[in-house]
Amino acid sequence: MSETKYRYGIIGTGIPWREEGSSGFGMANAHYPNMMKNGRAELVAISELLDARAERFQATHGTDVPNYHSYTEMLAEESLDIVSICTWPHLHAEMTIAAANAGVKAIYCEKPMAISWGDCKKMKAAADENGVILCFNHQRRHIKLFQEVRRAVQDGEIGDLVQIEAECGNMYDWGTHWLDMMFFYNNDDPAEWVIGQINSQTENKIFGAIMEDQAVLNFKWRNGVRGYMATGDLAKIGAVHRLIGKEGVIEVLNERSYRILGKGIGEWKHIEVPQGDWSDLALAANDVVRALDEPGYKPLISADNAIQSTEVIFATYRSSQIHGRVDLPLAYEGNGYLDLVNAGVIGPDTK
Ligand SMILES: NC(=O)c1ccc[n+]([C@@H]2O[C@H](COP(=O)([O-])OP(=O)(O)OC[C@H]3O[C@@H](n4cnc5c(N)ncnc54)[C@H](O)[C@@H]3O)[C@@H](O)[C@H]2O)c1
Predict the structure, then answer these.
(1) How far apart are the C-alpha atoms of 282 and 253, rounded to whole Å?
(2) Domain-by-domain residue ranges, the chain?
(3) What is the pTM of this model?
(4) Which of 57, 71, 86, 288, when mutated, tests ligand 1's pocket best, judged by the most ligand atoms within 8 Å of its CB?
(5) Tens digits of per-residue pLDDT, 89-144?
(6) Half-sphere exposure (CA, 13 Å, Cβ side) for 57?
(7) Which of 11, 96, 137, 207 has the most ligand 1 atoms within 8 A of CB, as the residue to mutate?
(8) 142-275+307-350, what's its fold?
(9) Which fold is adopted by the domain 6-139+282-301?
(10) Distance 240 CA to ligand 1 centre (A)
(11) What is the pLDDT of residues 22-33, one digit of tens each?
C-alpha cells in the first residue's frame, strides 16, 4: 500500500446540527473526522459558499486549507482523489457529475441520491464512464446489528425469507436509509415491480427537498421476497424492520437490539448488538478509502446498491401518479411526486 495520502476535499461544510447558525446537520463535520480516522487521506481544500461556515469548520477541526466559493474551481485546481459532497439533494447530481468528469477517483456523496430518477442514472453513468468509485452515505449498512440480522437470515434462522417490512417518518429522506437496509437484508437482489401510494397535504421540506408526508408501498424482488413499507406520522408496523421467514420472524427494535422467534425457539429471544469502537459513519468513510486501496473491492455504500433502493422511491412516486403498478427498470426519469404537486393534484395547497 502506498504511503502517499489521498488528496481529500469537501463540498459544503455546513454547521453541526442544532449549533447556532446551522442550516442542517453539517454532515461535513462528520465526514471529515471519520475520513481522517484510518490515516490514509489528508484534507487539502474545502468548498463552502459562506465564509463564516468555512471558517468555523476550519476552527473546529484545526485545519487551514483553501476555501473555494466555486466547487468547480476546487475540482479543477486541487487534483482531488476523494471528494465528499455534503450539500442538499438538489445539488448532488451536478456536483457528482462534475467531480467524476474532473478526475476525482472516489466520490462520497450524501443521501438521498438526487431529486429525479434521471439525475440518479446520470450520476452513476458519469462515474462508470470515468472509472470513478461512487458511494452514497447509506452508512447504516455498517451498523453491526443490521449486519447480524442479515447474517441470521442468511444462516436460515427464520427459514426462507418471505417478506421484509419497514416503517419510518418519510420515504424520500429517511426512507432512503430503510429501503437501502431492506435491499441489504435481501442480498441486494434487484426489484421487479413496485406499487405504491403517497399522500401530501402538508409542507414537508427536508434539506431543501419537498417530499410526501405519507407513503405505503409494496414491491417484489426477483428472488420472490416481498417488500412492504409504511411511512409518515401515522405509519405503524410495531417494529423498525420486520423480516418474516417461513419458519420465524425477526423484529429490529432499534439500531442496537432485535428480537427473534426462530427455528426451535419457543419464545422471543432478545439480542443486543453493540457497535464497537468504529461508528457506522467511520466504517462508511473507511469503505470509500478501502475501495481505492484495494482495486476491485466494492464498498457496501456503493452506488450500485444505492441506485436499486432509490429506484423504488421514484417508482413509488410514479405508481402514485399513474394509479398502477410500475415494472422495473423504471422508465420514467422525472419525479412523479413533484409532477403531481406542480399540477396542483396533491400538496399543501390542495387540502
Ligand atoms: N447520512 C445521514 O445520516 C445524514 C444525516 C443528515 C443529513 N444528511 C444529508 O446530508 C446532506 C447535507 O445536509 P446537511 O444537513 O449537512 O446540510 P447543511 O445545510 O448543514 O450544509 C450544507 C452546506 O452546503 C453549502 N453549500 C450549498 N451550496 C453550495 C455550493 N454550491 N458550493 C459549496 N457549498 C455549498 C451550504 O452553504 C451549507 O453550509 C443532505 O443531502 C442530507 O440529506 C445525511
Answers:
(1) 23
(2) 6-139+282-301, 142-275+307-350
(3) 0.97
(4) 86
(5) 999 999 999 999 999 999 999 999 999 999 999 999 999 999 999 999 999 999 99
(6) 34
(7) 207
(8) Dihydrodipicolinate Reductase; domain 2 (3.30.360)
(9) Rossmann fold (3.40.50)
(10) 26
(11) 999 999 999 999
